[in-house]
């Protein structure tokens, strides 16, 4: 039986930190569903469709990664695809308390799925999509934070229309 994991997130946009977790999870599990959630409590820069496309483009080199989206409860999504595990990245101790609450709830809703935490690579421990968007908005160099395709998409989002004479 294939070992299936879900790697959920908003991925707005996907960063090298996300890719680090995805690649490492793909070494452990037979299939990894990178699953974009539409978090209504966050203002997203990219549409769900745009995020799906960016993730597909930057994960083409990982053959056992599938890209999907869902609305609703992660525990239900995991059950629907017969997932054994949820992969979550941890950047710092501050992430742990929040993640522990989510893990406990997912366990209550679906006792068949386990959550695996992967500590992010130290070079990405400060990295978040929010920071990347903020730096990109003010024309800062984000080339070491996101793949080139994502950098291009961010720059396009923040381009100011030229003034007409």
TrEMBL record:
Homohexamer. ATP binds at residues 10-11, 18, 89-91, 99, 124-130. HAMAP family: PPAT_bact. Its main location: cytoplasm. Pathway: Cofactor biosynthesis; coenzyme A biosynthesis; CoA from (R)-pantothenate: step 4/5. GO terms for molecular function: ATP binding; pantetheine-phosphate adenylyltransferase activity. One of its GO terms (cellular component) is cytoplasm. GO terms for biological process: coenzyme A biosynthetic process. PANTHER family: PHOSPHOPANTETHEINE ADENYLYLTRANSFERASE (PTHR21342). Keywords: ATP-binding, Coenzyme A biosynthesis, Cytoplasm, Magnesium, Nucleotide-binding, Nucleotidyltransferase, Transferase. This is Phosphopantetheine adenylyltransferase. Its cofactor is Mg(2+). It comes from the Bacteria. It comes from Peribacillus cavernae. The lineage of its organism: Bacteria, Bacillati, Bacillota, Bacilli, Bacillales. Belongs to the bacterial CoaD family. It catalyses: (R)-4'-phosphopantetheine + ATP + H(+) = 3'-dephospho-CoA + diphosphate.
């Amino acid at each position: 039986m294939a070992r299936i994991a879900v790697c959920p997130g908003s991925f707005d946009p996907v960063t090298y930190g996300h890719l680090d977790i995805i690649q490492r999870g793909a070494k452990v599990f037979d299939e990894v569903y990178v699953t974009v959630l539409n978090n209504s409590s966050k203002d997203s820069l990219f549409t769900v469709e745009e995020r799906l496309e960016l993730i597909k483009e930057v994960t083409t080199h990982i053959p056992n990664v599938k890209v999907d989206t869902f609305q609703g409860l992660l525990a239900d999504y995991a059950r629907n695809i017969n997932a054994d595990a949820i992969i979550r990245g941890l950047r710092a101790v501050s992430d742990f308390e929040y993640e522990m609450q989510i893990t406990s709830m997912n366990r209550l809703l679906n006792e068949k799925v386990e959550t695996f935490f992967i500590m992010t690579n130290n070079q990405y421990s400060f990295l978040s999509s929010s920071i990347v968007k903020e730096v990109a908005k003010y024309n800062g160099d984000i080339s070491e934070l996101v793949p080139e395709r994502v950098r291009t998409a961010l720059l396009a989002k923040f381009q100011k229309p030229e003034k007409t004479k």
